[in-house]
Amino acid sequence: MARLEESYASLPSDAPVRLAKRTSNLFRGRTALTAGLDVSGLDGVIEVDGDVAEVQGMCTYEHLVEATLPHGRIPLVVPQLRTITLGGAVTGLGIESTSFRSGLPHESVLEMDVLTGSGEVVTCKPGDELFDAFPNSYGSLGYATRLRIELEPVQAFVALRHVRFDDAHALAEAVERIVATREWDGERVDGLDGVAFAPDELYLTLARWTDEPGPTSDYAGQQVFYRSIQQRSTDRLTMLDYLWRWDTDWFWCSRAFGAQHPVVRRLWPRRLRRSDVYWKLVALDRRFAIGDRLDRRAGRPQGERVVQDVEVPVERLTEFLAWFDREVGMRPVWLCPLRLREREWPGYPLTGGTTYVNVGFWGVVNVGPDAPHSPRNRAIEAKVSELGGHKSLYSEAFYAPDEFDRLYGGEHLARVKGVHDPDERLTSLYDKVVRQR
To answer: Which residue among 6, 94, 261, 332 has the highest number of C-beta atoms inside a 10 angstrom radius?
Structure first.
C-alpha cells in the first residue's frame, strides 16, 4: 500500500489517475500512459481461512487458485482466463460455468478496500453506496486494493458430460431445467456452459465435482478442449485443468496463430500456450495491422473485429442466435448461463429472478469498406437492447451518451463518483469504454 500511496502522491494534480499495469484483458484502446499508480505490491493472497479468503486487488485468479486449491476451495466464480485479476473481475464483471448458481464475482465479495480518485482508501461492504456502484465501473470509481471473498469446497476432479442439442430452443429449455433443479438425468450439475458450433449442433457441458479416482484428459498438451466437446460424450479433468480448460487455447482463438496445427503445437512450448501470450500477439497485430495487410493481399474485404460478450434472457436466446447467424455469421460461440444470486446491481442492471445466457464471440468479420464504422458491433448492441439484454464493456462500445446512461445506471454512477472523486481525477465510465477508441 505504501508504494501505491506514494505513486498517487507523485502524480501531477491535473493528471488522470490510472494503473501502471503491463497486462490487460481489455479489448478496447487505451490512451498512452505517462504515469500511473504503482500496484506491484498488491498481487498476493493475504489469507485463506475456511470458506473465506482475503486477497489483494491485483492478484490474478491463477495465483488465487494456487493458494485456495490446497485447502480444497475455489472462489465461487473463477473467470476463464488465468491473468484476470480479482479486482478487475469485480469492477469489470466476470463469468464462468458456476454463474448459473453463483452469479458474478462481485456477488461473493464480503468487504473491500477501494482507492478512490481523491486518494482515500475506503473500506466498504454490501449495502454501502460505493460498494454497490463498484461492479461494472471499470476503475471510474477507484481501484480495489483488498477484498474478502467467499470460497466454496471442491473435490479433486471434475466429471464432464457433453450433451448435444439439434436446435437452440431445445438447449434453452434444458438450461431452464438445470437452473431450476441443479441436475440433469438425475445427476448433480455443479458447472454449466456450452458451445454452439452450428444452428443444428449445440452442446451443454455439465460438470460435476468428484473425488472418484480415474484417468484424466490433458488439454494443455496436444489435444484441444473445444474440439473434444464434439468428439466425446463424457470426460474427466483435474479441478485445476477444468478451471483453465479455456485458457490454453483462448477458447478457440489460438487457431488464428496456428497453435492448434499438430506440427506447430508440438513446437509451441507448453508454458506459452496461454491466453496472455496470445493477447500479446493480438496487440502486435493491432499495432502493425498485420491482419489487414494479409486481407488486402488475399483480396478479402476489409475486416471488422467483433469481440463481445452479451447477456440475453434465456427465452430470447433462440431469437438472438438466429439473428446472429444471419447478420454476423460467426461460429462457434460460447454459451454460459447466468443468474443473479440475490439482488440487482445499479451499474449492470440485470433483472433478479431471470436466467440469462452469456453469448461470447470473438473474431473478425470481413464486411468491406464500412468496417471502420463497426456496423456489426453497432447492430449487436441494438439487438441485445431490443431483447432485454446487456453487453459487457471490456471491448469496444458505441452507445450514445443518453442510451449508455440508461443501460448502465449512469445517473447513479455519477452521483457516487461525485462523492468519492470530486475533482474528477478518474476517467468517467463513458469516456473509458466509448470515447477512448
So the answer is: 94
